[in-house]
């Protein structure tokens, strides 16, 4: 693999370099992630904010607001939307890394995620009601790879995705 090989918008040399270091010293393979999420009491300001540090010297301020039905202004994404984004982005990233490492080039890749949230179960204690409904993701990929190879990759990504282990998600493949 050449030093600057770039597959599916991923620097493969960076992955290989990290693997060599982490295999020599396994403790390097674990990275701690930590966020401090703050609630604002100031009317007219987003209710929730969080500074997200990154490896580069620039970070990002995330802001969130509850939906109107839950007492917010809905001027920012709801926390539940960030949850879905995090789940989908994590899964899609793992899928793309695995595809790239196997030499599977993808023209396009997108993921649709959907679920429903029962606001009533949040506002009232009601035994037997689950606040989060079944979650479904539809992975759309454009590839020369066979459906069989893509389905294997889909399952492998599902098994390796760190956010999937505590929750159950149904993932479907759609080739385009």
Tell me the structural class.
alpha+beta
Write down how many β-strands occur, each being a DSSP E stretch of 2 or more residues: 8
* Rg, Å, rounded: 19 Å
| CATH class label of the largest domain | Alpha Beta
Q: What order do the strands of the largest sheet run in, or round the barrel if closed?
A: 3-4-5
N-to-C span: 29 Å
Main sheet properties: 3 strands, antiparallel
Give the count of structural domains.
3
Features of this protein?
3-stranded mixed β-sheet; 4 helices; 8 strands; 3-stranded antiparallel β-sheet; alpha+beta; 176 residues; GMP Synthetase, Chain A, domain 3; 3 domains
Question: What can you tell me about this protein's structure?
Answer:
The chain is 31% helix and 23% strand. With 176 residues, it is α+β, with helices and mostly antiparallel strands. The protein folds into three domains: 32 residues, no CATH class; 38 residues, no CATH class; 99 residues, K homology (KH) domain (GMP Synthetase, Chain A, domain 3, 2-Layer Sandwich), CATH 3.30.300.20. The strands form three sheets. It has a three-stranded antiparallel sheet with strand order 3-4-5, with no helix packed on it. Helix 2 crosses helix 4. It is globular, with a radius of gyration of 19 Å. It starts with 5 loop residues before the first strand and ends with a strand. The mean pLDDT is 90.
